[in-house]
Amino acid sequence: MADAASVELLHVTKCFQATTMALADVSLHVKAGEFFALLGPSGCGKTTMLRLVAGLDTPDSGLIRIGGTVVNTLPPYRRRANMVFQHYALFPHLSVYDNIAFGLRVRTRPVPEAEARRRIKTVLALVQLTGLETRRPQQLSGGQQQRVALARALVLQPQVLLLDEPLSALDRQLRQVMQGELRRLQRELGMTFLYVTHDQDEALRMADRMAVMRHGAIVQLGTPQEVFQTPRTPFVAEFMGATNILAGRVVETMATTIGLETSTGLRVVCQCATAVRVGTVLSIVVRPEALQVVPHGWAWTEDNAFPGRVLQTTYLGEITALTVALPGEHTLLCHMPSRLAQEFGYQEASAVLVGWQAQDGHVLEEDPPLPSTCEASSS
Question: DSSP characters for 270-331?
Fold first, then answer.
């Protein structure tokens, strides 16, 4: 029997304006008590999925279950799944207390005032707003307003909390603070969180598992570590910041590795867990932080080692990003500790050696074809 706080989508499709497919035959199971992130670029369908679970939109086909119960035809107020919106939607003329109390008072059966006061006191402590009950939203900071929106959802005691990019309006430092607060709150409550974001770092910091979406479909699902370190397709690799993708033909196969040759003659050794035939054309990805960059002429022990020339250096605080040109018109993005980059004195036109171990390369699958249009899928 499904847990009361689990969320499940089975072959869900949603179209807008007759031809625009927002979700294409999506299936997903979110475990009870899980912090699950939906990640992807704008327009990929992640907010549509959230709205379907909340009951703000209706699927064209497929089933949506919360706790094993099909909720397709249930109105939002009967789903025990509350939503925190991107722009908070607080009532400016109401106090913090009255904003939080609003949902309790407008129910078909309003919560008794004594019980409402107890709940509100509890959630104010949870979100660390005790003492600010009489303030209006305009008297609060952005982080405090976000906490009021959270408290307003939590006071209704939902089984599932749906969050639609709730931190996007905050500055970077406050976002990082609130990321920690949300994670603390979720663990303390043991509640199921379904969290929408387009920020890769945010999803990596907070989620137990995550789904990367593209054009209305889930293209990879796994733990943050799995998605970050072993992206499945070029789209996922690039979206997660791994910009070093090399395409070529397999020229050699060994026990656990393959030899790849690019169109310009660059020979690369890469780890490969599955059987691949010589002559197969494929792509591999190497993350920028996996690359080692040393001055030209140093002794080298990497499986892959190539001479190069620095095209650009970008100081990013703790790390420095180097764009390095290799033979054959290839360029690689390399991330290294800024202390080392400064010690080596890297600058534009510096001669270097770039290398990585075979195990740091990862073979990619092809990106799946884009979903058909709604008209095509209904014909």
Answer: EE-SS---TT-EEEEEE-GGG-EEEETT-----SEEEEEEEEEEEE-SSEEEEEEE-TTS-E
Same domain, 249 and 137: no
298 vs 79: CA distance, rounded Å: 64
pLDDT at 376 > cutoff 70: no
Maximum distance among all alpha carbons in the chain?
A: 78
- In this structure, the dihedral spanned by the alpha carbons of residues 283, 284, 285 and 291, taken in order and rounded to 10 degrees, is -140
To the nearest 10 degrees (0 to 180), the angle between helices 96-105 and 113-126 is 130
Tokens representing residue 82 in the block: 């509350």
Residue 372 lies in a domain: no
Better-scored residue on pLDDT, 168 or 99: 99
Cα distances from 151 to residues 79, 93, 282, in angstroms, run 18, 17, 50
284 by Cβ neighbours in 10 Å (0-12 / 13-18 / 19+) ranks as buried
CA 324 from chain centre, in angstroms, equals 28
Residue type, 180: G
CB 161 within 8 A of CB 3: no
pLDDT band at 343 (very low <50, low <70, confident <90, very high): very high
Residue 347, strand partner residues: none
- Considering 234, 258, 284, which residue would you say is the last residue of a domain? 234
Q: What is the pLDDT of residue 174?
A: 80
Dihedral sign computed on CA atoms, order 343, 349, 351, 356: positive
Q: Binning pLDDT at 50, 70 and 90, where does residue 248 land?
A: very high
Is residue 64 within 8 Å of 9, Cβ to Cβ? yes
Are 195 and 261 members of one domain?
A: no
Tokens encoding 161: 């909390």
How much is the average pLDDT of 129-145? 92
| Whether residue 14 sits in one domain with residue 46 | yes
3-state secondary structure of 95: coil
Q: pTM here?
A: 0.89
Can you state the percent helix, strand and coil of the chain, rounding each to 5? 30, 35, 40
| Residue pair 149/88 in contact by the 8 Å Cβ criterion | yes
Can you give the pLDDT at residue 1? 44
Give residue 296's Cα distance to chain centre.
38
Pick from 11-20, 111-120, 206-215, 325-334: least confident = 11-20
Bridge partners (DSSP) listed for residue 333: 323
- 212: tokens are 């990367």
